[in-house]
Design goal:
CATH architecture of one domain: Orthogonal Bundle
Family: Belongs to the DnaB/DnaD family.
Radius of gyration: 42 Å
InterPro entries: DnaB/C_C (IPR006343), DnaD-like_sf (IPR034829), WHD_DnaB (IPR058660)
CATH superfamily of one domain: Winged helix-like DNA-binding domain superfamily/Winged helix DNA-binding domain
Strand order of the largest sheet: 2-1-4-3
Pfam families: DnaB_2, WHD_DnaB
Length: 481
């Protein structure tokens, strides 16, 4: 059950705006570097919106989402879900205006990172490595890499501004003041197009990391105000998010990355974090995945469970699939990489929501002796994806139905097996009886002769008894006379 209609309707109108130049190089960056992370559908939505801006235009005319649905050939709920990926990764800003019963959205397309910014980014570069693999990652990085030039062997002969241009005379400057003031006023009222991307186009909230806990584990000799500058906090939040580092562990890494002036060397911090991750999780990069079940698809949001089933629903809705798998391991054992890959495929390839993935994982583990069998997982995932399962309750009901059908099938197979066994036993008994009758010829002849002898003896005994009976009768008659 989808709830996109609570946020978006086909009749809702939208305007596309662009406040920076999107050139051919940017388009290649989006296709080669961003598309592996957001998928083909989100990529298509970005370029469909971009196509509505004609040459030298930075704002499109108003149109309805029905037009976008027709253009892309996909339903509105899919557009809404895929649009969120563009927002999350920093390629689209969305604004909403409601006037009476009419709703208009402003879709502001954002410029992608430059290749240098992308590959230096602590989040995007790691997730790209995970999605495309080492070989393809190195190919992409090489494609956007320039060979270094040794400028020392050259003599710079570039002309400076003052070599070419001359300054205005004082009288000329005075006569231009009025026009300059008017020009500046125009700039304030409007917005000059810029190619600057800024520090980051996507947001990871600081609330995701507990800095108070980090500070509690730092040495008392360190000045926290001087240490945790905005740039340092910004980097720590992103590194902690990607590599799943808790504040205690991060405090150790931060202290190992301090300079002589008690400031954090950010390059050293990144190296230390990656070394820690390699030591803890071997050489595999972190995987991209969603956290927990989306709020709008939760049926237990703001409710207290009143039954065991509702407690399970709440649990599935509020834990991530990785956390669920970790809870199934004994003694806090690390989740195997193969299992992590299966979970990632369920979320990214089969587009299942985290809570639904939790139900699927738990079901498979219960019926397969705590083993995730990839082929079986993918078979059920494909079915659930086709059924468009969105809520935990729907997933649980489907799992119950699957279990009942499985029980019936096993019962039927057992009954068939028992019937076959009985038939086999009967045939074996019959075969044994037939074999018993099929005696050797010589034994049959011996048996016949024995039967003939026995039949002759009986006849002879019968004759002798009749004779004796006659003799007794004759003697009795004589005595009476």
């Amino acid at each position: 059950m989808t709830l996109h209609w609570m946020h978006l309707l086909p009749v809702d109108r939208y305007v596309v705006r662009m406040n920076c130049f999107i050139n051919e190089a940017d388009k290649k960056i989006i296709t080669l570097l961003y598309q592996p992370l957001i998928g083909a559908v989100a990529h298509s939505i970005y370029f469909a919106l971009l196509s509505e801006l004609e040459n030298d235009q930075y704002t499109s005319t108003e149109t309805t989402h029905k037009t976008l649905m027709t253009m892309l050939g996909i339903p509105l709920d899919k557009i809404y879900e895929e649009r969120k990926k563009l927002e999350a990764i920093g390629l689209l800003n969305v604004y909403k205006k409601k006037q009476d019963d009419d709703i208009t959205y402003l879709y502001e397309l954002q410029k992608p990172f430059s290749p240098l910014e992308f590959f230096k980014d602590d989040v995007l570069s790691v997730y790209l490595y995970n999605r495309v693999g080492k070989h393809r990652y190195l190919q992409l990085r090489e494609r956007f890499t320039l060979d270094k030039i040794n400028h020392e062997v050259f003599e710079e002969v570039t002309h400076s501004f003052s070599d070419v241009f001359t300054s205005l005379h004082h009288s000329e400057i005075s006569s231009q003041q009025g026009e300059l003031a008017a020009s500046l006023t125009l700039v304030e009222e409007k917005e000059i197009i810029t190619n600057d991307k800024g520090e980051s186009s996507y947001t990871i909230l600081e609330e995701a990391f507990d800095f108070s806990l980090l500070l509690a584990h730092l040495s008392n000799l360190i000045n926290p105000t001087k240490l945790l500058t905005n740039k340092v906090k910004y980097t720590i939040v992103r590194l902690a998010f990607v590599y799943r580092i808790d504040p205690l562990e991060m405090s150790k890494i931060v202290q190992d990355s301090l300079t002589q002036n008690d400031t954090v060397d950010l390059d050293e911090l990144r190296v230390k974090v990656k070394n820690w991750y390699r030591f803890t999780h071997e050489s595999e990069p972190p995987a991209l995945g969603l956290r927990v079940h989306p709020e709008k698809f939760r049926i237990m949001a703001g409710k207290a469970p009143t039954s065991e089933e509702e407690e399970m629903i709440l649990h599935y809705e509020t834990v991530s699939p990785l956390t669920l798998l970790e809870s199934k391991s004994t003694d806090g054992a690390r989740v195997p990489l193969t299992d992590m890959k299966i979970v990632e495929a369920l979320i990214l390839d089969y587009k299942l929501l985290p809570g639904v993935v939790n139900v699927l994982i738990d079901y498979i583990l219960e019926i397969n002796n705590m083993k995730l069998i990839k082929s079986y997982v993918e078979k059920i995932a494909g079915q659930w994806a086709r059924k468009n399962i969105k809520t935990v309750k729907e997933a649980m009901d489907l799992a119950k139905e699957e279990y009942i059908n499985r029980e019936k099938l096993e019962k039927g197979e057992n009954e068939v097996a028992v019937t076959k066994e009985k038939q086999t036993t009967k045939r074996q008994n019959n075969n044994r009886y037939v074999k018993k009758d099929r005696l050797p010829k010589w034994l049959i002849e011996e048996k016949k002769e024995k039967n003939l002898v026995e039949d002759g003896d009986i006849s002879k005994m019968k004759e002798e008894l009749e004779t004796k009976f006659k003799q007794l009768k004759l003697q009795r008659n004589r005595g009476d006379s």
